[in-house]
Amino acid sequence: MVRAAVLPAVGAPLEVTEIDLPEPAAGQVRVRLAAAGVCHSDLSLSDGTLRQPVPAVLGHEGAGTVVSAGPDVTGFAPGDRVVLNWAPSCGRCHFCAALGEPWLCENAGAGAAVPYARTTAGGELYPGLGVAAFAEETVVPAHAVLPLPGGVPLTDAALLGCAALTGYGAVHHSARVRSGEAVAVFGVGGVGLATLQAARIAGAGRIVAVDVTPEKEELARAAGATDYLVASETTAREIRALTGGHGADVAIECAGRAAVIRTAWGSTRRGGRTTVVGIGRKDDRFSLSALEVFHFARTLTGCVYGDCDPARDLPLLAGHVREGRLDLGALVTGRITLEEIPAAFEAMVAGRGGRSLVVFGGDGDAPAPGTGA
């Protein structure tokens, strides 16, 4: 039995309880979690914005140590430090094999629909996004486990599972930020803070952070922002004023709201690029006129998982961590327990703080949990 935060039904409160976690079968690995990040996608799963069979154990951004592996699994042994991959590529579908775009894998989400554990009463439980990291331990397919390179604290490494890869990839793979370019980042949560750091690593010139609350300015500037704006109806105009009247070369939207995407688009120069990272609702729409699409010659692109191949990019990010260019701990504004996840959701909705990190005991390099969301 292990403790886990269970979502009994869509829209229902999480319940911290014991679950019956089986030993790994063929092709599976059991992992003891050191930490798990609380991502906006978890909130979207809990409220039905994103589909997830229930009851489920949410949490998809995690790191820990291998407990055991299935009989046919090679390459992993008990005690190995690993990062969990919520979107493992199959290597066989059109996007993986023909296009070399594993972040768009047709089968990446298949694990979320397969029961992986049971309640104490014997009912089936599903793993949120195939990972189920809001638990002391989890069982996942071996291809959803990535070796953690040396030199990265295990608790901080949880952020590599989603926020850091997404923010880094949005800058370096999707938007392809070049040295000296002006970048505007909309939304200063966990992914937004990672995006700001990635823009700084890319050598961006002016880096403008935008959020709905003035309280995030210090976090944004510490991550690399040269300017900070509180979102308003004049945000696009203010960004143009900061960039010689032209607009930003690149805007990266991390909030997942149509109105923010529209503002991000409007804040870029002619020929500028807007990358949408945030996951929004399917009924949240915005419009562009045919004339402005022609006249401004801007591009608008979606961005799934930062257009990252985790097997390729995780070692690169670990190198940035070791060299002091990427500070994973700076993304975290609260180290919490399983019981405090609902408060972390509330903080997210209210726009407070960066990433909340659920910290489990026994990993050896984690501060004590319970320091707030």
Report on this model:
The longest helix is centred in the C-terminal third of the chain and has 13 residues, at 310-322. The strands form three sheets. Strands 3, 5, 6, 9, 10, 17 and 18 form a seven-stranded mixed beta sheet that branches. This protein has a six-stranded parallel beta sheet with strand order 13-12-11-14-15-16, with helices on both faces. It has two domains: 2-161 and 327-359, Medium-chain alcohol dehydrogenases, catalytic domain (Quinone Oxidoreductase, Chain A, domain 1); 169-304, 3-Layer(aba) Sandwich (Rossmann fold), CATH 3.40.50. It has 373 residues and is an alpha/beta fold. The chain contains eleven helices and 18 strands. It has helices at 40-47, 94-98, 154-157, 163-174, 190-201, 217-223, 235-242, 258-266, 290-296, 310-322, 341-350, and strands at 2-7, 15-20, 28-38, 56-57, 61-69, 81-84, 117-119, 124-127, 137-141, 145-147, 183-186, 207-211, 227-230, 248-253, 268-276, 299-302, 332-336, 355-359.
Defining key terms:
11 helices, seven-stranded mixed β-sheet, disordered C terminus, alpha/beta, 373 residues
List the helices and strands and how they pair.
Layout (H helix, E strand, L loop, with lengths): L1 E6 L7 E6 L7 E11 L1 H8 L8 E2 L3 E9 L11 E4 L9 H5 L18 E3 L4 E4 L9 E5 L3 E3 L6 H4 L5 H12 L8 E4 L3 H12 L5 E5 L5 H7 L3 E4 L4 H8 L5 E6 L4 H9 L1 E9 L13 H7 L2 E4 L7 H13 L9 E5 L4 H10 L4 E5 L14
Parallel strand pairs: 4-8, 11-12, 11-14, 12-13, 14-15, 15-16, 17-18
Antiparallel strand pairs: 1-2, 1-4, 2-7, 3-5, 3-9, 3-18, 5-6, 6-10, 7-8
